[in-house]
């Protein structure tokens, strides 16, 4: 499956004594004051109100323990505001840190080739559901009907599952070729077959594989069939059925289930 593009983003905050000291917007306010000499102009450029600007300055002054901004009185322009030496030093240091932060994000971005698929995989791993079998893949094809649609989901190279869902579900889930989706199949919905000798079945999904694990219980046996490297499916059958089928580790078997037994979903 083709990796998806992902863009890394990050926000930089300063803190002092466990308290957030300056956000990018607050430091931008200080930089604007340094450039314009007017808190009114700086607040307008930064996109905050005059009161919010002074509230932010008071907050930073209190945490710094010394003024970062000072008022100027008198003069031809009737006064104004300017940064103190400490304020200018803070802005300069923050800009250096911000540049390093952006370089850090760019370096991570270069390593993010297949990170989107990894995030989808982690999301699927954290999803809680009663269905024993969970597959993540991409929609390979959709055949539209009057009421129901048949959806093919490619979950591994050469391995496809077929599901039947209502046309409304196809639209509400946004299913289309290339869209990432997951399939849920209850183990109790999977029939295990072996040595069909050309028997023809109506079940849309008939996936051949090899028995990789047998877990007998008091009444039932869990049968795990390896379908492809890294892909397997579990079925629950009675102990009597497991015995009559002569299932053993490494023996060929086929996982059979109806397309209507497949539940489709998309990552949120």
Automatic annotation (TrEMBL):
PROSITE patterns associated with the record: MOP
Keywords: Molybdenum, Repeat, Transport
GO MF entries: DNA-binding transcription factor activity; molybdenum ion binding
A GO BP entry: molybdate ion transport
Residue ranges that the Swiss-Prot or TrEMBL entry lists as coiled coil: none
Residue intervals of the Mop domain: 128-194, 200-266
InterPro entries assigned: LysR_HTH_N (IPR000847), Mo/tungstate-bd_C_term_dom (IPR008995), ModE (IPR016462), ModE-bd_N (IPR003725), Molybdate_resp_trans_reg (IPR051815), Mop_domain (IPR004606), Transp-assoc_OB_typ1 (IPR005116), WH-like_DNA-bd_sf (IPR036388)
Region (Required for dimer formation and molybdate binding): 129-137
Family: Belongs to the ModE family.
Name this polypeptide is given: LysR family transcriptional regulator
Organism: Aquitalea palustris
Highest classification ranks of the organism: Bacteria, Pseudomonadati, Pseudomonadota, Betaproteobacteria, Neisseriales
């Amino acid at each position: 499956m083709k990796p998806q593009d992902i863009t890394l983003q990050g926000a930089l905050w300063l803190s002092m004594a466990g308290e957030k000291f300056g956000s990018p917007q607050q430091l931008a306010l200080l930089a604007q004051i340094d450039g314009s000499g007017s808190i009114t102009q700086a607040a307008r450029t930064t996109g905050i109100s005059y009161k919010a600007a002074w509230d932010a300055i008071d907050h930073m002054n209190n945490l710094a323990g010394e003024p970062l901004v000072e008022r100027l009185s008198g003069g031809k322009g009737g006064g104004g505001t300017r940064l103190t030496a400490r304020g200018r030093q803070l802005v300069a240091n923050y800009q250096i840190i911000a540049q390093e932060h952006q370089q850090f994000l760019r370096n991570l971005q270069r390593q993010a080739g297949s990170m989107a698929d990894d995030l989808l995989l982690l999301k699927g791993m954290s999803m809680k559901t009663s269905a024993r079998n969970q597959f993540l893949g991409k929609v390979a094809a959709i055949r539209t009907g009057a009421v129901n649609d048949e959806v093919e989901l490619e979950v591994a190279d050469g391995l496809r599952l077929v599901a039947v869902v209502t046309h409304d579900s196809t639209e509400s889930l946004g299913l289309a070729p290339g869209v990432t989706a997951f399939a849920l199949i209850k183990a109790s919905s999977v029939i295990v077959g072996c040595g069909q000798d050309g028997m023809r079945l109506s079940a849309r999904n008939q996936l051949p594989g090899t028995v990789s694990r047998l877990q007998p219980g008091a009444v039932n046996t869990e049968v795990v069939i390896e379908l492809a490297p890294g892909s397997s499916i579990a079925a629950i059958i009675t102990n009597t059925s497991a015995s009559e089928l002569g299932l053993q580790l490494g023996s060929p078997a086929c996982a059979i289930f109806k397309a209507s037994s497949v539940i489709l979903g998309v990552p949120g």
